Amino acid sequence: MLTAPTPEQIQTAVHDKIRLVLAEHGKEVGPLSDADKLNATLGLDSLDLATLVAELEAELGVDPFAKLVSITSVRSVGDLVQAYKQALYPELQPQRQDDHAIAAALDRARERRARRER
Amino acid sequence: MSQSRKVALVSGGSRGLGAQLISGFLDRCYGVATFSRTKTAFITETLLRREQVDFHWGEVDGRDHEALRTFVKEVGELLGRVDVLVNNAGIASEGVLPTMRPKDIVDAVEVNLTTALVLAQACSRLMLRQGAGCIINISSVHAVRGHSGVAVYSATKAALDGFTRSLARELGPRQIRVNSVAPGYFDSEMTEGMPNEQKQRISRRTPLRRLARIDEVASAVHFLASDQASFITGQTLVVDGGISC
Predict the structure, then answer these.
(1) Which of the residues A34, A67, B100, B119 has the least number of beta carbons within 10 Å of its own beta carbon?
(2) DSSP letter string over B174-195?
(3) Which domain holds residue A39?
């Protein structure tokens, strides 16, 4: 891909590569949805996911799991699409709810530490 | 990814065993890639003799992980695939542990182990896409038997053998084989400075009564890379004239 893919093209690329990996196991699937679980619904294992990441790196030119996102946080098709969108369009990403939760937990920990030190 | 000719990537290919491995792979009609910090006479000569589609060399420091990843991508694009990775780059690290310089310990782990892990990770991605591949780690007889004065070197090589076994289980389902070759002492630049007395002592203790020739070690690697070894994975093939048996 010579120019940066649009968010729609990212989704299409992810869906196509999932189908490609499933086809290697002789599986065919209908339309994919964001809620489809990669393992529970589609039956992809960790090596399938690794193959998928390698294929997508060749297609989209990025690997979001090298630095940005942990591969273990990816459960669904939507998570995977989101990881690539985040890697290619960091400015478009709204702050995630769990980022707020982590920040709040860190604040509470800081307060506890401060109380102990007092 | 398709292309019928096989491609081998050999680390530490600018001299010694690496150069021997490269010549052997080229003779077997593989496309071959290697890298080093500087061009040696072997590299210059091979570049002159071979087409770029047969042999690719990159100026890369093996301790630069990002450069290693870029080099693997470059090889994938230029030669079309990577069928065989030989993790051969290594440095000898001698001296008793209590007085070793900490920097030498870190360097040995970096060059002998971390470089191999980074290359295996990058190449395994191409191999997953290809649905096949072969990784060979050059270990050492020191990984199998303890010897005084090489504790750090032994640690890095034994770690490679552990890596071999676990990675073989991990990647086996995708037809990627992973093996180690553990040479004993062989005639190379690494043993060039060894006193003759020590060489004679090693020969006396070796059931075959001599050091290995470099081509005898290379043959074991070429065998494991070949289809003749298609059902061998997760193994360490010791090539030491019997010194560890």
Answers:
(1) A67
(2) GTEEEEEEEE-SBSSHHHHTS-
(3) 7-93
Query: Tell me, what's the ipTM?
Result: 0.83
Minimal C-alpha gap between A45 and chain B (Å): 11
Q: Which of B30, B42, B153, B163 is catalytic?
A: B153
Q: Map out the domains of chain B with their CATH numbers.
A: 7-238 (3.40.50.720)
Q: What is the pLDDT along chain B (245 residues), one digit of tens a residue?
A: 546 799 999 999 999 999 999 999 999 999 999 999 999 999 999 999 988 779 999 999 999 999 999 999 999 999 999 999 999 999 988 899 999 999 999 999 999 999 999 999 999 999 999 999 999 999 999 999 998 999 999 999 999 999 999 999 999 999 999 999 999 998 877 677 788 898 899 999 999 999 999 999 999 999 999 999 999 999 999 999 999 99
Locus of tokens 């075959």 = B208
Q: Please indicate, yes or no, if residue A62 is contained in any of the structural domains.
A: yes
The CA-to-CA distance between both ends of chain A, in Å, stands at: 58
Separation of alpha carbons B118 and B137, rounded Å: 13
Domain count along chain A:
1
Q: Note whether B131 contacts A47, CB cutoff 8 Å.
A: no
- Chain B residues whose beta carbon lies within 8 Å of the beta carbon of residue A58: 129
